[in-house]
Give the backbone structure.
Amino acid sequence: MPRYRFSDFTLSTRKRLLIRNGRQLPLIPRYLDLLIFLIERRRDAVHRREIFDRVWSDVIVSDSALSQAIRTLRRTLGDDSREPRFIRTVSRHGYQFTCPDVIEEPDDVPEPVPVRAPGVESDLSAEARSAKSDLSAEARSATTDLSAEARSAKAEQTRQKVGASMTALMTGATRACAGAALAGAAAGIAGGLLLSVAPGNAAPLAIVPVLVLMGAGAGAAGGLGVGAGLAFAESSSRLRNAGGLTIGAAAGGAAIGMAVQWLMRWSLAAVVGLNLPIGGAFEGLVIGAAAGVGYAIARRHQGTPLRRSGRPGPAARSRLQRAAVVAAFCAAGALALTWAGRPLVGGTLHVIAREARGSQISLTPLGRLMGEPGFGPVSQALIAAWEGGVFGFGVGIALLRRRSHADLTNPSSAAQDLPRA
């Protein structure tokens, strides 16, 4: 290990001592590391980033900590920043050790013991006490700087976590909204075509685009709430389990259902003068909870991601099966609501058509198509199960596709994000 001698200073890297005329000058370890690094790189102007990577590699600090360390070294060496003899500031870059007469020698060679005149010991003791006091003040100042930097770093980490959570929330809600909207539009197409060919139907074929828009709108609203609830639960370390996913999806579905319920009741009363007991909040709660349970179960069986060759792997082949799990739970929730006398979109449209004069969206022909004299219990149950299943499939296929893509880009995320039972 080398020992450096410059001017009337000796720097021992083996003993980690800075000595001046035989007197030890106290320095905190990190400042001593900085001085050693600058002397080792004395032929170069060392960039601030290199200094941080070498001296402060284990902590996050700002430029103020480095500036404080340079001031302490200059005071210890008796240097002046305006006319530097040892440490030069390189503007917008860093610092350089500039003393030209640096002697480097092995640190195992005994150093000559200086001869002191009588009475010098007391002066050195006083200087040592003064230097020790300066060191304590510098150490306290450095500790304060590091504490402030730690608080700033923690605040920045908190801001980054909040930003990541908001991004995940928006992404999950958008994907679920789009998937449920497409599923609702497909259900509207199927329902409109089936209704147009049903016996005794008076509605024209033009009813199909109307049902498409209504199905897409209802699906988008429900998907937005359920997707936001699931994304919020996934972004939280405490809610990233089956119970948390169920609670999050149920809360999102209930919130959207309450808003739709208020809007539908107000619109019907204001536009056509109908005051109907239209539901929404409870239905959204039940369908959201069912989607949360199905999604948690489907995500536990996350398979192998897509192969990089573009061919579908086991995950791609099983994605439809896992989305079908979400659809099955949503269909079961819709059936439970029907048996409790709480219709979904189709049943609500039938109630509105029955009360409104001249409406052509009555679902009675569908009941006759299924062997009932009207829109009876069997027809209501089948329509509700169809609506719930299609909605759950749309939400599941959108969110589970996002999970598979995340596993492809970051394979370790699958193991980390599996819900805890």
User: Anything to note?
Assistant: The mean pLDDT is 78. The beta strands are 2-6, 9-12, 17-20, 23-25, 46-47, 87-90, 94-97, 102-106. The chain has two domains: 2-154, 166-417. Residues 120-197 form the longest helix (78 residues).
